[in-house]
C-alpha cells in the first residue's frame, strides 16, 4: 500500500488553570467550610454501623446454626423416609387432601353466610349503597353516551351539509368555466 501523501495535522488545546476552582470542598450557606465534604463517614453513620454489626452477625450466626441443624436432621431422617416411604407418601397425600377439603368447605361456608346476609338485607330494604351507586353510575353513563352520540351525529350532519354546499359551489364554478371556455 502506498502513502497517500496527505499531511497529518495535530491540534493542541491548552486549558487554563483557575486557582479558585482547585479546592473542591463545600461551603455551607453561611460561608463556613464543610468538614464532612473533605471525606470520611459522619459520626451517625459510624455509630449506626457499630450498632448494627453485632445484630447482623448474631442473625447470620443463627441462620448458619439453623441450616446446619436442618442438614443434620435431614441426614438422620432421610434413611427413615426411604424405608417408610410406602407408608409416608399416602399418609402425606391423605393429610394434604383433608386439609384442602377443610379449607375449601370453610371458604364455601363463609361465602354462603355472606351471601345469605346480603340477600336478607336486600329483602329488608337495607341494601348497601353500592347497588344504588352502581345504578346511578349506569344511568349517568347511558345519558353521557346518548349526549355524545347526539353531538357526533350533529357534527357529521353539519360536515355533510358543508361538503354538499362545497360540492354544489364547486360544480357551479366548473360549469361556468366550462361554458365560458
TrEMBL record:
Q: Which GO terms describe its cellular component?
A: membrane; monolayer-surrounded lipid storage body
Annotated membrane-spanning segments are: 87-120
> Which Gene Ontology BP terms does the record give?
lipid storage; response to freezing; seed oilbody biogenesis
Comp. bias intervals (Low complexity): 168-181
Q: How does it sit in the membrane?
A: Multi-pass membrane protein
Identify the main location. other
Keyword Cytoplasm found: no
Xref: InterPro entries: Oleosin (IPR000136)
Location within or outside the cell: Lipid droplet; Membrane
Return the annotated region ranges for Disordered. 1-22, 159-181
Keyword line: Lipid droplet, Membrane, Transmembrane, Transmembrane helix
- What is this protein's function per UniProt? May have a structural role to stabilize the lipid body during desiccation of the seed by preventing coalescence of the oil. Probably interacts with both lipid and phospholipid moieties of lipid bodies. May also provide recognition signals for specific lipase anchorage in lipolysis during seedling growth.
| Family note | Belongs to the oleosin family.
UniProt name for this protein: Oleosin
The taxonomy runs: Eukaryota, Viridiplantae, Streptophyta, Embryophyta, Tracheophyta
Amino acid at each position: 500500500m502506498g502513502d497517500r501523501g496527505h499531511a497529518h495535522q495535530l491540534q493542541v488545546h491548552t486549558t487554563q488553570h483557575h486557582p479558585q476552582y482547585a479546592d473542591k470542598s463545600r461551603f455551607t450557606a453561611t460561608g463556613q467550610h464543610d468538614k464532612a465534604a473533605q471525606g470520611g463517614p459522619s459520626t451517625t453513620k459510624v455509630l449506626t454501623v457499630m450498632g448494627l454489626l453485632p445484630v447482623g452477625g448474631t442473625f447470620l450466626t443463627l441462620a448458619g446454626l439453623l441450616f446446619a441443624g436442618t442438614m443434620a436432621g435431614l441426614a438422620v431422617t432421610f434413611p427413615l423416609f426411604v424405608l417408610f416411604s410406602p407408608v409416608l407418601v399416602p399418609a402425606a397425600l391423605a393429610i394434604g387432601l383433608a386439609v384442602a377439603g377443610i379449607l375449601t368447605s370453610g371458604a364455601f361456608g363463609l361465602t354462603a353466610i355472606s351471601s345469605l346476609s346480603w340477600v336478607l338485607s336486600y329483602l329488608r330494604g337495607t341494601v348497601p349503597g353500592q347497588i344504588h351507586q352502581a345504578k346511578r353510575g349506569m344511568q349517568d353513563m347511558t345519558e353521557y353516551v346518548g349526549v355524545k352520540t347526539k353531538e357526533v351525529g350533529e357534527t357529521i350532519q353539519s360536515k355533510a351539509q358543508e361538503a354538499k354546499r362545497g360540492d354544489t359551489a364547486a360544480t357551479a364554478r366548473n360549469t361556468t368555466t366550462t361554458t365560458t371556455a
